[in-house]
Amino acid sequence: MARVYATSSQYQEYTGEAPPTDIDVRLRRASAFLDSQVFRLCVYDTDATTGMPTNALVLEAFANACCAQVEWGVQVGDVTGAAGVGWGTVEIGTAKLSRSVTSTSGDEAPGRQIAPAVWDALRSPDLTPDILWVGAVTTC
Question: Do the Cβ atoms of 69 and 33 come closer than 8 Å?
């Protein structure tokens, strides 16, 4: 079951703005993206049934991180990563950029980058190592 770490009301509280009409889809995608790119590399206690963090501070930090990721996509104008796919040559005034169209996957697109504010949410001084380890990699 996919976890969604934030609600539309949390997004509105976080940004101070009305959420986009497709906010539930964006929050679900941001949650899945952060699960695969960030949260899976963290150590924290989870609910055995839902997989959600059990500590309220960790849960709040994950919600803020998710809202930050959605806000980032809105601000950069790329919520899916598709903006980085398919361009070969771009000219703006005298500046000219080119790259191979076949070598672009979209992973470098702004919509596929981790928002800087995600790290701010996860590096709060309230998130002590006994409740959240960010970037922890262990082996059994």
Answer: yes
The Cα 37–Cα 127 span in angstroms is: 19
102 occurs within a structural domain: no
Q: How many residues does the chain have?
A: 140
Q: Write out the DSSP string of 39-76.
A: GGGSB--B-TTT--BSSHHHHHHHHHHHHHHHHHHHHH
∠ CA 29-32-33, rounded to 5° = 85
Residue 30 counted as domain residue: yes
Tokens of 53: 């963090």
- pTM > 0.90: yes or no: no
Q: What is the pLDDT of residue 96?
A: 77
How many domains does the structure of the chain reveal? 1
